Amino acid sequence: MARNQTSAQKRFRQSEVRRMHNKAIKSECHTYVRQFIEAVHAKDSKLAQEKLVLLSSKLDSARSKGVLKRNAVSRKKSRMQKLFNVTFAAAN
């Protein structure tokens, strides 16, 4: 049975660390999305606005780190903004 080269072993370790780091960032983004949606369903426009700002910031941060792709971030931000506008349009 062939043994992995030292460089291949190092590559595996590096990719595993990166995978866990990226997973943590994605999970954090999912958490902010969930919190925003909960605020919208609770009809709390002030809290929802705060959560939307935080969510946009986290998505942009994930984009700059290369965890999420540009169009995916744009799509998510657009959908969240649309949800906010539709829900709270009658209140304004």
TrEMBL record:
Protein family per UniProt: Belongs to the bacterial ribosomal protein bS20 family.
Molecular functions per Gene Ontology: small ribosomal subunit rRNA binding; structural constituent of ribosome
Record has Ribonucleoprotein as a keyword: yes
Summary of the function given for this chain in its UniProt record: Binds directly to 16S ribosomal RNA.
Protein name (database record): Small ribosomal subunit protein bS20
TM regions (residue ranges): none
Species lineage: Bacteria, Pseudomonadati, Spirochaetota, Spirochaetia, Spirochaetales
Keywords in alphabetical order: Ribonucleoprotein, Ribosomal protein, RNA-binding, rRNA-binding
An annotated GO BP: translation
